From TrEMBL:
Belongs to the AIM9 family. Its main location: mitochondrion. One of its GO terms (cellular component) is mitochondrion. This is Altered inheritance of mitochondria protein 9, mitochondrial. The keyword Mitochondrion applies. The lineage of its organism: Eukaryota, Fungi, Dikarya, Ascomycota, Pezizomycotina. Keywords: Mitochondrion, Transit peptide. InterPro entries: Kinase-like_dom_sf, Mito_inheritance_9. It is found in: Mitochondrion. It comes from Aspergillus ellipticus CBS 707.79.
Length: 141
């Protein structure tokens, strides 16, 4: 679990450009900056404040580096990132050149301390996998 937490810290700032890669949301191209914004719902009260709380900037290069090597094997180029509907986190479908796909979750500030909420999710998934027959996704990083 410690490598996961180190990788979360790498995502906090975005100072670099990512090579040619498409970014989409609901099957439409979007600018890369829109990956950081909340676009999945509406806020009735204090709209600007609520959207600001859900804005989460992260290091896209670091995310792509982590995703390219996740799952072991040879590093694969990331060809697209699709912004999915996420309730409390940024949920991204990452597609690799070899056809592999991953889901990345980037915690938002409204859910609490990122380290603790992510550790709780990882622990819950590991528990379900170990003690039940319910299929759950494998945490790669």
């Amino acid at each position: 679990m410690l490598p996961l937490m180190r990788n979360l810290r790498k995502l906090r700032s975005n100072n670099q450009q990512v090579a040619q890669m498409s970014t989409v949301c609901r099957d439409k191209p979007i600018p890369r900056d829109e990956l950081f914004t909340y676009t999945n719902g509406r806020c009735r009260l204090n709209k600007d404040h609520q959207f600001a709380r859900r804005y989460r900037k992260f290091n896209l290069d670091a995310l792509c580096d982590i995703a390219a090597t996740a799952g072991g094997g040879i590093s694969q180029q990331i060809i697209s990132i699709e912004k999915l509907k996420g309730g409390f986190d940024k949920a991204l479908l990452i597609k690799k050149k070899d056809g592999g796909e991953l889901i990345a979750k980037v915690p938002c500030r409204i859910t609490g301390t990122a380290f603790l909420t992510t550790a709780s999710e990882v622990g819950t998934l590991e528990y379900i996998r170990k003690y039940t027959s319910i299929p759950v996704p494998r945490v790669l990083s």
